[in-house]
Amino acid sequence: MTRELLNLDGFDSSSGADARDSFPPVRGEDWETRIQAFKDNSGNVHFEDGTKDDGVRVADICRSAKLGSGSFGQVWKATVKGHTLAFCNPIIKDFKPEQKWAKHTAKAMEIDSARGPRCANILPCYGYIIGENVRVMAPYPTTAVLEYSVILFLQFMTTSLGKILERSGTIPDLVVGKFASDVSAGMYHLRHTFKVLHRDIKPDNMLIDKRTGVVKLCDFGLAGKVNDLSQITSAPTTAKYLAPEIGTRSVDGKKSEWTTQTDVYSFGISMYELIKGVLPVDNRPIYLKEPLNLHLTPNDSPNLHTLVNDCLLPDKDAEKLRPNIKNLDHHPVIRRFRVEEINVVTWLSKTLTEHPELDSDGL
């Protein structure tokens, strides 16, 4: 496969002289200081083997294959100073001094995960490089708008549960149970460590490590920061994984709010798809759709039917009965699979042998 050095015209990859390993506290800082802290960390990369380099530049990236696309744009396999990893190049837009720093950097949750507590079920980021474009809409800094082109360095993974399902048709019940416990742990970490709802839970965003069989959530370009009381009101999730209450309006005409139960529905329908192999798809606009009547029996899934059915309760029962993310992570079925020994690696090795295209470097 042809390898090429990455060339981003106009991209300034120079790092600050006093590069720091973590962001300073947000509270009490002025806007310019926060932007400078973001810039100062540019080029600091912590590789998977534990080594660190604080001077990585665009010229060090040797791109080899396209891995896929997400809400952050295209994702590529690359070699950086002898290390194999993945990278994407999103644009973080509209850094405005009157808006929250966290809201904008949360669109790159991979950045936060590189600096904050790690979770085995979140795709790790090893660092980033930034370039800067400034669009001044009014006298600076009152309403100045900054756009940053960010290269995020991520762990390289060859396949997702979505791709495996597409090739293999179905996945064994016990294996899906282990995947469910992994995904639940990742959702819990995002919600309770970063105050984030993923908002795009689906099998394509569940990557699997072929060495360990561990599933990791990826693609946080749609993630929104929330505090303990606020809720997200937009609805970006891929339509067929969208909770039925999203897109509807209450009696007072307000749009239904995005809650933790909304992500739990997306989790439930993802597990349903992994178990059954397919989903009934309704291609009509959201406002014309009736909620899917999805229900698993013990014959469909002897181990997971109660968990999935709890997560797929219809909109009228969502707030009252559908688990929130915390309750999902403490669900008896999840707790069981968290401690049960399931040989996922053996199953995965057999699947990759039968479908070698799943273990390829690119699309």
Automatic annotation (TrEMBL):
Renumbered residue ranges of the record's region Disordered: 1-26
Family annotation (Pfam families): Pkinase (PF00069)
UniProt xrefs under InterPro entries: Kinase-like_dom_sf, Prot_kinase_dom, Ser/Thr_kinase_AS
A Gene Ontology BP annotation from the UniProt entry: stress-activated MAPK cascade
EC category: transferase
Keywords, ordered alphabetically: ATP-binding, Kinase, Nucleotide-binding, Transferase
Gene Ontology molecular function: ATP binding; MAP kinase kinase activity
SUPFAM superfamilies: Protein kinase-like (PK-like)
EC number from the UniProt entry: 2.7.12.2
Domain of life from the UniProt record: Eukaryota
Similarity section: Belongs to the protein kinase superfamily. STE Ser/Thr protein kinase family. MAP kinase kinase subfamily.
Protein name per the record: mitogen-activated protein kinase kinase
Species of the source: Steinernema hermaphroditum
